[in-house]
Design brief:
single chain; 655 residues; alpha+beta; Elongation Factor Tu (Ef-tu), domain 3; Alpha-Beta Plaits; 5 domains; 7-stranded mixed beta sheet; 6-stranded antiparallel beta sheet; 17 helices
Length: 655
């Protein structure tokens, strides 16, 4: 049986040390490495070793009780949680490490909620149980208050089949309840029912020990082995299906596409057809690598349940579902964690901008959340980030991998723009010997729906090939709003009409007409500014409740009624990223380290101080020639431009 498990924890909870113990105790590695000694088999990157934290998700393999385990060690720092989330699509089970000295920390809550959103069965290991101040009951109460009350505490594998476990399982599994009441069950029935409720995430097995001293590791392995099960289809007649969860480049710059095989088999030289940017390409599996930390072995074939890397793929991105025998269209995954901050890149040496962009695109392929953009009008290079520590790491990565010195400016919030009511935009592009006209309806949609597209244009007016071309142009670039030049969102773009010329219409004509139609519609619409929001959970002593509630109001946030429990307060709410992104530091300060705050990206919503923000950004839409709303017409061999507010009088789809 093959099982893929991910190890998760708040930074410094002992996650990588725990992973090291699993590998060592199962004979996968000969020497037990340590993070503080820079000898861990999983944190192999020089930057990880110097920082003493996990930055990149790495893979190990071990055998236990005749099962094969792929283990993925993930970053614990919030700034690298996008990397953590991407690994979740490869998992069968998760192990959440909780510090016995700190309890459930802010980021622990975020991780638990993420695992819940991906429906990943989760085991909990309380680490550092060897410290003098350790109190198991207090930690379990903390877990029940902040994470879940469905805790099944086990001392050892023998506890799986005791009376307490049977009662716990019967309370959550109706089929087993009947057998339990009739005293008509055996240990196999009990274990099967326990596995069932674990998979449903209504049971979270919990154990305690010390990763540093190797206490409780063997017991945990036995429990985990007995209470986990996977079923993968490896038959020859099954199509290969795999999910891309990570992109990397090795020391030679070779692109590695990391995949979790979900069914079927994959072999060297298998070919797949990908469509990217409207272009089809045939790509071949040139090499299959199975990684163990930084080392790997090459094999000729893998099957369902395996986790591996492919050399030869250029098109797939994180989240791509690869299916043999099918054309694979470029797709993106809607990750829950999104970078809500942007930072400007400053070149500190003489590196050419083109070369810098090329290297940043490499990093973007590995971390799509970076979302690298280049603004030609200002010659600014911008990247999206999760936090300030990430910028420090990126500086080191650019220097160590590419030999380029860069600096980053203070992160700023990334705004969005949308519209309040439906409008129709028109774009006409007709310089001499060119022709295209596009009529697009812009319809506001629900928050979080982003930009979508539909065609309602009759093929008698515009052939299907050109309609498909227009759709490609809608999505090939980020379209800017007219208030701040921020990307537009939550708009459905509907093609209602269009015109071409049998002789003069060429490839790029509909691109220009489409861009201008969108912009002309935005000029006519009533635009509104949106800003990113966090959902937050705050835990603190009750004495600080008044100040916290006052702060939330001052920071333009809102919250549910506080929940009091044994002298502590729990507050759940929502507020703008711009005002809340540094509040966790302030909270820690005035609560003297006893308060904690977990933050999770919660989409975009109306910006209440939009006038202030618009004035501060100072976007001049008239000078943004790359996003013009002006249409181009031609009469008697002479081309001329028409501003957006007069363009409709000249349109052929109207007249």
């Amino acid at each position: 049986m093959k099982k893929t498990i991910g190890i998760f924890a708040h930074v410094d909870a002992g996650k990588t040390t725990f992973t090291e113990q699993l590998l060592y105790n199962t004979g996968s590695i000969r020497n037990l490495g340590r993070v503080d000694h820079k000898t861990s088999s999983m944190d192999t990157d020089e930057i990880e070793q110097s920082r003493g934290i996990t930055i990149f998700s790495d893979q190990g393999i071990f055998q236990f009780n005749n099962d094969t385990y792929y283990i993925i060690d993930t970053p614990g720092h919030m700034d690298f949680s996008a990397e953590t989330e991407r690994s979740m699509s490869a998992l069968d089970y998760a192990i959440l490490i909780i510090s016995g000295s700190s309890g459930v920390q802010a980021h622990t809550t975020t991780l638990f909620n993420l695992l819940n959103s991906y429906n990943i069965p989760t085991f909990i290991f309380i680490n550092k149980a060897d410290i003098d101040s350790f109190n198991l009951e207090l930690i379990i109460d903390d877990i029940k208050d902040k994470l879940t009350r469905d805790i099944l505490y086990l001392n050892s594998a023998e506890d799986i089949i005791n009376q307490c476990t049977a009662e716990f399982v019967a309370d959550r599994d109706d089929a087993f309840l009947e057998s339990y009441l009739q005293e008509n069950y055996n240990s196999k029935d009990l274990i099967g029912a326990a596995i069932n409720i674990i998979k449903k995430r209504i049971c979270f097995p919990l154990m305690a020990g010390s990763a540093l001293k190797g206490i409780g590791i063997d017991n945990f392995l036995e429990v985990f082995s007995k209470l986990t099960k996977t079923e993968y289809q490896e038959k020859e007649d099954n199509n290969f299906v795999g999910k891309v969860y990570k992109i990397r480049h090795d020391d030679k710059g070779t692109r590695l596409t990391f995949i979790k095989a979900l069914s079927g088999k994959l072999r060297i030289k298998d070919e797949f057809t990908f469509i990217k940017d409207g272009q089809a390409s045939s790509e071949k599996v040139n090499e299959i690598r199975v990684y163990k930390g930084k080392k790997y072995e090459t094999i000729n074939e893998i099957s369902a349940g395996d986790v591996f890397a492919v050399v030869g793929f250029k098109s797939p991105i994180c989240g791509t579902l690869i299916i043999s025998g099918e054309t694979i269209i470029e797709q993106t995954s809607n990750f829950h964690l999104t970078a809500a901050l942007k930072s400007r890149v400053n070149i500190l040496d003489k590196t050419d901008v083109t070369i810098l962009m090329e290297k940043l695109r490499v990093l973007e392929s590995e971390d799509p959340a970076l979302s690298v953009t280049y603004r030609e009008e200002t010659e600014d290079i911008l990247i999206s980030i999760m936090g300030r520590i990430q910028l420090e790491i990126l500086e080191n990565v650019m220097k160590s991998r590419f030999g380029i010195s860069v600096g980053f400016e203070k992160p700023q919030v990334e705004y969005r723009e949308t519209i309040l009511s439906t409008v129709t935009g028109y774009g006409h592009f007709e310089p001499l010997r060119h022709y295209a006209e596009v009529q697009l309806m812009l319809v506001p949609t629900a928050r979080g729906s982003e930009v979508t597209y539909e065609s309602r244009c009759h093929v008698d007016n515009l052939i299907l090939n050109y309609q498909n071309t227009i759709e490609n142009h809608v999505f090939e670039r980020v379209h800017k709003g007219v208030l701040t030049g921020s990307p537009i969102t939550d708009i459905k773009i509907i093609l209602t009409d269009g015109r071409s010329h049998i002789k003069h219409t060429e490839g790029g004509d509909f691109r220009e007409a489409t861009y201008r139609a969108i912009r002309q519609g935005l000029e006519k619409a009533e635009s509104i500014l949106l800003e990113p929001f966090y959902s937050f959970e705050i835990y603190a002593e009750e004495t600080y409740m008044g100040k916290i509630m006052s702060d939330i109001h001052k920071l333009r946030g809102n919250c549910e009624p506080p929940v009091l429990n044994c002298g502590n307060v729990y507050i759940k709410g929502r507020g703008p990223v711009e005002s809340f992104m540094d509040y966790s530091i302030k909270l820690m300060s005035f609560t003297k380290g006893t308060g904690s705050m977990s933050l999770m990206y919660d989409g975009y919503d109306l910006c209440e101080n939009s006038i202030e923000v618009i004035n501060k950004i100072g976007y001049d839409k008239e000078r943004d020639v790359e996003n013009t709303s002006t249409s181009v017409f031609c009469t008697k061999g002479t081309s001329y431009t028409v501003p957006w507010y007069e363009a409709e009088k000249y349109m052929h789809t109207i007249n």
